[in-house]
């Protein structure tokens, strides 16, 4: 593994983990009133395209970190919809 790949992996991990605090807060408080569903859908679409790009380039760091990011964001979207429905915000 070379220096460029290491930097790419570190950047991908930080980017992928960026919404973990929001996900944890949403689950703990069972409140997603401040989360935009449209923003999450746009973000998930973009990240999914990064995964596809990673497959086209056969770039494991891009694929792995963006799959993780997609999973975090899909989980946040799930809880966002669930808690908004429970509170009648949708």
TrEMBL record:
It is a multi-pass membrane protein. The keyword Glycoprotein does not apply. GO terms for cellular component: membrane. Keywords: Membrane, Transmembrane, Transmembrane helix. The chain crosses the membrane at residues 6-24, 36-56. SMART domains: CTNS (SM00679). NCBIfam families: SemiSWEET_2 (NF037968). This is MtN3 and saliva related transmembrane protein.
